[in-house]
Amino acid sequence: MSAPVSRKSRTKHTNNDFDLAIWFSFAHHRGHGESGEGGIRTPDTVARIRHFQCRSFSHSDTSPEHSRGFAPGEGKGYRLDPALSASISTIPRPSGLSSHFQAMPRRPKNHRPDLNGVLVVDKPLGVTSAAVCRRVRRITGGAKVGHAGTLDPLATGVLVVCLGEATKRVPELMAGEKGYLAEVDLSAFSTTDDMEGDPTPVEVSPGSEPGRGDVERVCAAFVGEIMQTPPVFSAIKMGGRSAYKLARAGEAPEMKARPALIHAIEVLAYEWPVVTIDVRCAKGTYIRSLARDIGVKLGTGGRLQSLRRTRVGPYTIDDAIALEEIPENPPLV
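The structure assignment produced for this chain is given below.
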């Protein structure tokens, strides 16, 4: 007679097979095919099980009506019947399902419950927003951290980092008005709509460059609610995959125009081929797309040369602290 399985072992075993438990429960209660009998007969339930690897499963409910397809296992509970297990394991996984049924990673514990508030960071060039959050968590000794809106690695400026209970405010802060200081190069387009991609120079004959008045008039045309086509190299999902991953794989994702709201554009400086603009806009506006579209309207090139975020909601660059200067007990607002 085999030794009984401890509660700890059964718990670990059940957690490892939790995804299969979800599927089998669905198949049991919803899996009625054309014949009206229970089982894994509908396309929906078959598609669900194709994602999962077949593993043994401890069933917590020992009542007979919940045990179809299960065989008695060691200790309390049931295991998935070996015959059914073998048949399931031969069903191939369909493409596109794996990303939707991954087990959720365990969230790190909050080791600094005393830190609750907003930290405004002046993100440096070349650093991702996620890397800033990881560094803040490390500096503070394990505080709960999240940011209110991604800032591209090639951009600098305001990154709102929420700590502790303030992470609940992330959706609210992300919906706030954004402010940007952007330099636009009118001499070329690029594959990424910024300086990182392959450039396509645009020939502009000497003396025919647009004047400042032309630039101001074109910029004013973009104020208000507009339709904007996002850059190909963006994180927008296309069929479950990020557009930039498709582009890097050599595919050409078709980006659809979407509404964007721009509150104001002010031309601060202009000396051919670079124009400096101050932009106030709503969530979801791509400044790279704006730079490209300004060039198209002017009949020149258009790519983003530099970008600095100056405002997110009520927080401005004046509230920001440099990443390398963040102390263990940072000043929260």
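Interim note for the steering committee: The first strand starts at residue 70 and ends at 72. The longest helix spans residues 18-30.
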